[in-house]
UniProtKB/TrEMBL annotation:
The keyword Transmembrane helix applies. InterPro entries: PIR2-like_helical. Residues 6-110, 224-334 form the PIR2-like helical domain. The chain crosses the membrane at residues 76-97. The keyword Cell membrane does not apply. This is PIR2-like helical domain-containing protein. Keywords: Membrane, Transmembrane, Transmembrane helix. It holds the Pfam family PIR2-like_helical.
Length: 376
């Protein structure tokens, strides 16, 4: 955290030195208080990009670089913790350090490190969470106008290349007017462009140089996914039969592993148990308690992990969880040899790999290729 604070503090001091005119202490204070290191561009650009008139109103004149660095770091961490479930604060700091305090680069690292192969920043859920996380970050960083800051960045999200062109020159009044013209265009938010643009900003460090496997947070995120499968399965069942018959077989054997998709597996396993081991007089229940559902989710997880561990002994627990996250707990996707009886020979197990060191001329922040085939 100390290294990260020092890095962000350097961004602010360099930005102060870039002011065209010799600023008074009060002017520098207003500049620092408005220029939070939170947004959709790289940190150096972010510090100066918040200087259009709408965001410079009612700002403090006595802010110091060190204080602003701490506020910005708190906001960056708040964004990542909100946007990624079960991410610890110190883990967020770690990713930010690897990403050189670049918010979207850090977010891409988390997506890659967690193996979130199906992640899309443009999905309805992601867009809403992204905007809410950005608002929280601005509030935690004590920005004078957090709502305005979020509105500006979401409006500019589809025009970031033009913004970069305007910001590539020294701060001028004309530059501010150009950005205001972009804001007046009322463009639709497009965080996907900002997400893709972050791929062109490879960090100087590589996450492989800071080895740590955040298995617990990854496992908790997987359990959340498994819970969604159970909620979907419950929603598909007839209410009367669920209360009188299926609740028992659901709790006893309604696991999400099997040859089909997880939701179908839950229903098939539940019906099979009800047919094979029917209770003579099952009680009528109105609900399945959250603790019972949590135990069922954990058992399903252990079943999924045990299946892969039994077949591929060289996979670590973290790699197993990565496989399950990347495949959305779908065994036939996670295991290339799942239906080996219908194949001429078994395929080579596909093992999840961590991010590789950056290569010249290629994007550093590609999604981690969890299923790269290993040669025998």
């Amino acid at each position: 955290r100390t290294r990260l604070l020092s890095m962000i503090d350097t961004f602010y001091r360099e930005a102060c030195d870039m002011l065209v005119v010799e600023a008074t202490p009060a002017t520098r204070g207003r500049f620092l208080d408005a220029g939070v290191c939170i947004g959709l561009l790289d940190p150096n650009t972010l510090v100066t990009s918040d200087l259009h008139p709408g965001l410079m109103d009612n700002v403090s004149e006595d802010t110091k670089p060190g204080e602003m660095a701490k506020r910005s770091l708190d906001g960056l961490v708040a964004f990542l913790i909100y946007f990624f479930s079960y991410l610890a604060g110190w883990e967020a700091v770690r990713y930010l350090l690897v990403a050189d305090a670049d918010l979207l680069v850090a977010a891409r690292l988390i997506v890659a490190d967690r193996g979130m192969m199906g992640f899309s920043v443009m999905s309805l859920a992601s867009v809403a969470a992204f905007e809410a996380a950005l608002r929280l970050a601005a509030q935690v960083a004590k920005h004078s106008q957090p709502e305005r800051l979020v509105s500006v960045w979401m409006s500019l999200s589809s025009q970031l290349q033009q913004v970069l062109s305007f910001l590539s020159v020294m701060q001028t009044q004309t530059q501010g007017m150009n950005i205001q013209m972009l804001l007046g265009g009322r463009s639709l938010p497009d965080p996907g462009k900002a997400w893709n643009l972050a791929a062109s900003r490879p960090p100087h460090s590589n996450i492989a140089d800071m080895p740590y496997e955040a298995t617990r947070s990854l496992r908790m995120a997987l359990l959340d996914t498994i819970r969604i499968f159970y909620l979907r399965a419950l929603a598909r069942l007839p209410r009367a039969e669920l209360r009188t018959r299926y609740h028992r077989s659901m709790l006893m054997a309604g696991y999400c592993y099997g040859p089909f998709d997880p939701v179908s597996n839950i229903i098939v396993n539940m019906i099979w148990y009800d047919v094979m081991f029917a209770a003579p007089h099952p009680p009528v229940l109105d609900m399945i308690g959250p603790k019972s559902l949590t135990r069922l989710e954990s058992r399903s997880f252990y079943g999924l992990a045990s299946f892969l561990q039994t077949r591929y002994h060289d996979l670590s627990e973290h790699q197993l969880v990565q496989c399950l996250v990347a495949s959305c707990a779908h065994l036939s996707v996670a295991d290339p040899n799942f239906d080996v009886a219908n194949k001429g020979r078994a395929q080579v197990p596909r093992k999840p790999t961590r991010l590789q060191p950056p290569q010249h001329g290629t994007p550093t922040l590609r999604l981690m290729q969890h299923f790269s085939v290993q040669s025998t």
